[in-house]
């Protein structure tokens, strides 16, 4: 008390200040206890079951499912690469032109069929129909979109039609980004 008198502070003010400070601390304590009770209630709801064992099992099951899906995705990716490698050699571009090969026959019974791979390799099949002389069929090879023999107008038209068709592209680089392994 002598200290307060020496400084010139009334002891009543000190007691009032301490009481106000204690009241504020008490209110903060109540707020903290209420928040803690709400958090505990949420925790208990979250951990409902046999002391959280159900939750732990559920989480482990989900991780196992994710691992299985990751393996499946990698298998599917490998299969797609294999299928795509086979598709590159499959005929996927088609050109067809029907025409009258001879003047005595109408109805456009003659035709030119062009089948090309994605890299424009393939063949030209020309079938010319005639009532007097029968039917003639010719095959011509196509390499990289070019035939190395003389083509008729219809054959050239069918070849250009086939080359204009969109083919499936082979997976490469950025188009075929391998699935990434995710670490936990």
Low-confidence parts lasting 5 or more residues at pLDDT below 50?
A: 170-176
Q: Note the gap between the termini.
A: 64 Å
- Helical content (DSSP H or I, runs of 4+): 40-55%
Instruction: Provide the β-strand percentage band.
Output: 15-25%
Q: SSE string, helix = H, strand = E?
A: HHHEEEEEH
Number of strands: 5
| Order of the strands making up the biggest sheet | 1-2-3-4-5
Rg is 42 Å
Outline, from the CA principal axes? Answer: rod-shaped
The major β-sheet equals:
5 strands, antiparallel
Structure class: alpha+beta
Please, what is the average pLDDT?
Answer: 83
Number of helices: 4
Overview of the structural elements:
- With 184 residues, the chain is an alpha+beta fold.
- Among the domains are: 2-44; 93-164, no CATH class.
- Helices cover 48% and strands 19% of the residues.
- It has 4 helices and 5 strands; from the N terminus they run αααβββββα.
- It has helices at 2-7, 11-46, 53-87, 153-164; strands at 93-99, 110-116, 122-130, 134-143, 146-147.
- The chain has a 5-stranded antiparallel β-sheet with strand order 1-2-3-4-5, covered by helices on one side.
- Strand 3 (122-130) and strand 4 (134-143) form a beta hairpin.
- The longest helix has 36 residues, at 11-46.
- The chain is rod-shaped and about 135 Å long.
- 9% of the residues are buried.
């Amino acid at each position: 008390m002598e200290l307060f008198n020496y400084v010139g502070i009334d002891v009543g003010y000190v007691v009032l200040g301490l009481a106000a400070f204690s009241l504020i601390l008490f209110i903060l304590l109540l707020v903290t206890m209420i928040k803690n009770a709400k958090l505990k209630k949420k925790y208990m709801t979250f951990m409902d079951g046999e002391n959280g064992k159900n939750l732990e099992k559920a989480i482990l099951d989900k991780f196992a499912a994710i691992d299985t899906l990751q393996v499946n995705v990698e298998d599917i990716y490998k299969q797609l690469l294999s299928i795509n490698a086979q598709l590159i050699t499959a005929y996927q571009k088609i050109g067809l032109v029907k025409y009258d090969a001879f003047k005595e026959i109408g109805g456009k019974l003659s035709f030119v069929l062009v089948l090309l791979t994605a890299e424009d390799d393939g063949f030209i099949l020309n079938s010319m129909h005639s009532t007097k002389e029968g039917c003639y069929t010719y095959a011509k090879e196509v390499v990289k979109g070019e035939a190395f023999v003389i083509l008729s107008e219809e054959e050239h038209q069918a070849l250009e039609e086939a080359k204009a068709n969109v083919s499936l592209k082979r997976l490469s680089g950025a188009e075929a980004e391998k699935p990434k392994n995710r670490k936990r």
